[in-house]
Design a protein that fits this description.
alpha/beta, Rossmann fold, Isoleucyl-tRNA Synthetase, Domain 1, 4-stranded parallel β-sheet, 14 strands, 14% strand, globular, RNA-binding
RNA sequence: GGCGGCGUAGCCAAGUGGCUAAGGCGCGGGCCUGCAAAGCCCUGAUCCCCGGUUCGAAUCCGGGCGCCGCCUCCA
């Protein structure tokens, strides 16, 4: 049994996992901005905390997981005052910001359920916590960290010596405005808005009164305010995509640690790497597979994405290709078949025989969640000739508590997709059946070829011939 | 300009100083099946290039080449 170790972005190393409160883990995850459907990269960022949670639960920890819903803000660019992702989406759809948020929040939750994520204990919305955010802003103001300029109230990062620590920034070397316009009046390039003033000429759908005037909170404020509200001023794990580490999380740390005078506010910063889309920008016009529903439309089980996720280490960029997803779907299906067949085995297993495999699986995950290594153990069990079936069954059950691949699911409930019917095709099939009865294989094969040309696949079963459409591979 | 990551068999991907370089998918071969599907078995790499350290390197160091990400309220 190895000690559990996780890589922590702040200390830039893998170190033994410890908790602030014995047996309990507080974990915060930066959740979705709900103005559009989530893409597969977002889902990867959702699967990381789910893996952490399942693993730690299997280790006996009680995990309180909080994922926020960002349903306000997000300026598209400084140049476009008032152009805000929520607002733009709402305007386009002719809906209110709340309706847009509701729609995409639900879509996100459906996606999470489709990849079998355990629901978080708390799933707070930013707009439901405006008072908490204002309260934190006031604390920062009282402690002298804020200053006001034309478009809002800003945090002076030069007053927080540890500002560059999390992201390992070289503030001197940063090129302000390298990718975005400079905001007039900021004291330091890294300063960020805690509260933005509403543009008097542009009525926003979402704005609130505050001690600093009417406006809306800076994006970073919500995560500080809500993590403290639900997990306390200090908690154990904070997860998100790696892109958020540099700016968002540096700012979050600044707010929480300055506002509440604590350090460190987060024990383990765990960031997942991006999917490598091969330099190809995801776009609907290109028909690139990029959302979970796109996968479903192509006939893939959404859990194939979960399997795909488990095949690579979370801190490595993972190449996202059609081929890889197809391979994952196939691997998943085979594993599920094995798991389901083993569920029919009766009897008790032998814990002694299971122990070594269990330990290797567990130790792989204890080593900064090395899921690919754990999966190798899973396959070893799935295909083992040495283990008794009861032991293979028990082991896969145990593993699947963490994998979440529904390996032992009731075969009858899931089973094969329903066999299809169609007068024309059924007619050809009947003709083929007659040919087969008289062993006229030439005719039977000719009909098979005809149907194959129509993208129809014939499967002979003990109950007779069945058919189904071959999943499309276009795009 | 600053910061970070990667380059291992056709594809995805573990391994980061020393057993025969995990695992999945595909390809090929075989078994089974009239054929096919499913299933089962077998099968493949000396680790981007060059130089160095070492008894010994995919694994450490230096130099190339190539790819990707962050520095934007992008996962």
């Amino acid at each position: 049994m190895k000690e559990i170790e996780f890589y922590d972005t702040r200390s830039r190393k893998q170190r033994p996992f410890t908790t602030l409160k014995p047996g309990h883990v507080g974990m915060y995850t930066c959740g979705p901005t709900v103005y559009a459907p989530q893409h597969v990269g977002n889902i990867r960022s959702r699967l990381l905390p789910d893996l952490i949670k399942r693993f730690l639960q299997s280790e006996g920890y009680e995990v309180t997981h909080v994922i926020n819903i960002t349903d306000v803000g997000h300026l598209v660019a400084d140049a476009d005052v008032g152009d805000d992702k929520m607002e733009v989406a709402a305007r386009k759809a002719g809906l209110s910001a709340e309706e847009i948020a509701e729609k995409y929040t639900q879509m996100w939750r459906d996606d999470c359920a489709a990849v079998n994520c355990i629901s978080p204990e708390e799933n707070p919305k930013a707009t439901d916590h405006i008072p908490e955010q204002i309260e934190l802003g006031k604390r920062l103001e009282e402690r002298g960290y804020l200053y006001t300029i034309a478009d809002g109230v800003y945090f002076d990062t030069s007053l927080f010596p540890r500002y560059a620590e999390l992201a390992g920034l070289d503030l001197e070397g940063q090129q302000e405005g390298a990718r975005i316009g400079v905001t007039e009046g900021k004291k330091n390039p890294s300063d960020f808005a805690v509260w933005k003033f509403a543009d008097p000429d542009m009525k926003r759908l979402q704005e609130w009164d505050s001690p600093w005037g009417r406006g809306f909170p800076g994006w970073h404020l919500e995560c500080s305010a809500m993590s403290v509200r639900y997990l306390g001023e200090r908690f154990d794990i904070h997860t998100a995509g790696i892109d958020l580490a540099t700016v968002h999380h540096s700012n979050e740390v600044a707010q929480t640690e300055c506002g509440f005078e604590v350090h460190p506010s987060v024990e383990f910063w765990m960031h997942n790497e991006f999917l490598d889309m091969g330099g190809e920008k995801m776009s609907k016009s290109k028909g690139n597979v990029k959302t979970l529903s796109n996968l479903s439309e192509r006939g893939f089980d959404p859990l194939a994405f979960r399997y795909f996720f488990l095949q690579a280490h979370y801190r490595q960029q993972q190449a996202y290709t059609y081929e890889a997803i197809e391979a994952a779907a196939r691997g998943l299906r085979r594993l599920q078949k094995i798991g389901r067949a083993l569920e029919l085995v009766e009897g008790d297993g032998n814990p002694g025989a299971q122990a070594p495999l269990k330990e290797r699986f567990r130790d792989a995950l204890a080593d900064d969640l090395n899921a690919p290594r754990a999966m190798a153990v899973v396959w070893e069990v799935a295909r083992s000739d040495d283990l008794a079936d009861v032991d293979r069954r028990d082991l896969l059950r145990c593993f699947d508590l963490i994998l979440g691949l529904r390996l032992g699911e009731d075969a009858a409930a899931e089973s094969e997709p329903a066999w299809e019917q169609d007068p024309e095709i059924d007619g050809l099939l009947a003709e083929r059946e007659r040919a087969r009865e008289v062993k006229d294989w030439a005719t039977a094969d000719r009909i098979r070829d005809e149907l194959t040309a129509l993208e129809v696949e014939i499967i002979d079963t003990p109950e007779g011939a069945r058919w189904r459409r071959i999943a499309g591979h276009s795009g």
